[in-house]
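Researcher: Structure prediction, please.
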Amino acid sequence: AAGLVATGSHIVAVAVDRPPTPGRNWVYYPDPDVPFHRVTHLSNYSPHVTPRPGQTLLLTETSTSAHRPVPADTIAARVLAGLRRVGLIEDRDRVLGVWRSTHRRTYPVPTLGRDAALDVVQRWLAGRDIVSTGRFGGWRYEEGNMDHAVAAGFRFADRVATGASREATR
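Model: Predicted structure follows.
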């Protein structure tokens, strides 16, 4: 497992007293002057994630790694400034609350040594009747869109139902 590499993430949720922006689920921001790479408009998934109807809940993701360290103690303030910069917050007084969580490993990174490490890890897990597959469990983020995740789930269900080999789950 030591041969596997991942980036970390700062997750910052911001509740805003304004109606949600319709038609948005998540938006990517490939701008070096914006501290987050993605904003998910959680309040567009369900009106029940905010205290009152007509409020907005935004969830930002900021990647961090040894190559691009981002300090946890300043990320919330930087995210608020970034949300203002991209027009998702007009008035700081309308911010109802901010929540932050930092995780050391959130996205697998494909490296030259990954497949050799995965071979050892996956065999060890299989020997304990554990199947680790999909976007994150298989450590193959580049193969992990929703279609792949559903297909991996079907392969796993077939394996359980038929007793197929571990290879059939990949």
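Model: The chain has a mean pLDDT of 89.
Researcher: Thanks, that helps.
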